[in-house]
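Go through this chain for my students:
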Amino acid sequence: VGYLFLFAPLVLSFLSGAVMSRMNVAAMALFYWAFVAIMGVSLSSIFLLYTATSLASTFFITAAAFGALSLWGYTTRTNMTGWGSFLVMAVFGLIIASLVNVFLLKSGMFDLVISAAGVLIFSGLLAYQTQQLKQVYYSLEQNATGLAAMTYYGALSLYINFINLFLSILRLFGGSRR
């Protein structure tokens, strides 16, 4: 059961784009809340690994970074359209590198490199996706159903990036209980 909750968020993250595009708004809402609940259960183990002070300070740092990156993505005149495919491929590379490190290398230094790369990649994704959501919002402003659907899709994508940014920062600077 532990492995189910460990890998379920990763599997659901990959499926979310394909699955949510075929759902109606009510099903998207259900998928979103189910994902959030599963992610909550999956993340509960970090309370055993890190101190409460470390978790709280990392959360506030991540929240401030999220706000700043989203604001920058929303207000910048830089067209980030080309960033999307590069950042998504970087996420796949990050996942592969993490799996190799966990199962083969078991290197603390490589874990730090992966975490630092994660901070950069998920920071870029937050800014990119905020800009993309802004563009979609303006293109759908007369379509209430489309806006409702994009609200859940956008919330899920930003939530996933927030969690991954939080975990990357936590692995870099978090005070471990060990």
Summary: The chain has a mean pLDDT of 92. The CA atoms of residues 26 and 36 lie 15 Å apart.
